[in-house]
Amino acid sequence: MGIKENLNHIKSQLPEQVTLVAVSKTKPINEIMEAYNAGQRIFGENKIQEMVDKYEEMPKDIEWHMIGHVQRNKVKYMAEFVSLIHGVDSFKLLKEINKQAKKHDRIINCLLQIKIAKEDSKFGMSAEDASTLLQSDSFSELNHVKIVGLMGMATFTEDMKQVENEFKFLKSTFENLKSLNTDLNIISMGMSGDYELAISCGSTMVRIGSSIFGARNYNN
Ligand SMILES: *Cc1c(COP(=O)(O)O)cnc(C)c1O
């Protein structure tokens, strides 16, 4: 199947309240344009420089989401246009995003990344740290960022029961934190291999790459 068919197939399965982020990392412009021409307007990248290059070349009605780990010294390159940063995992990073957003007279929407996986390699903060951050005075002073939800990545495992437990943990963390901060309305969880499970656990935003664009080749 082609990109358009893959996209339409996935969209036909998503409930109305679930937003699709088409993860286009490593994919060339012509392939991303196929998805664009099929109606997709939200794309996710995990490297800032690659996202900037694509932003410059592609139509300006695209919403670009940064879904990868963010280095503070690179926030300035995307501050002008990024529409949602999924991987915010520290106050220091949030402060830098606020500073760069202010230069462009913008408010940048962010998700707090919560560590839900058991693996050491996955980034993210604890539910307790997220709660502390949301209630802190220093956070309330940041007028150019808005935390609109949470993001999580489950463990890379065949054990779907474990993945389900991790998704349920993110959902319950979301419900707890929402009582502190009513701006929270997005739960970003679910990728090609687990988005149906994620949706059944309460996801409102899925990040899907290989099921749309095919497998990634990191060697070219
Ligand atoms: C690459 C990536 C995805 C998409 O992965 P697929 O398995 O190709 O759907 C989703 N989220 C993040 C954070 C990613 O880096």
TrEMBL record:
Naturally occurring in which organism (per UniProt): Winogradskyella epiphytica
Keyword Coiled coil: yes
Signal peptide: none
Sites of N6-(pyridoxal phosphate)lysine modification: 25
Record-given protein name: Pyridoxal phosphate homeostasis protein
Superkingdom of origin: Bacteria
Alanine racemase N-terminal domain mapped to chain residues: 3-216
Sorted UniProt keywords: Coiled coil, Pyridoxal phosphate
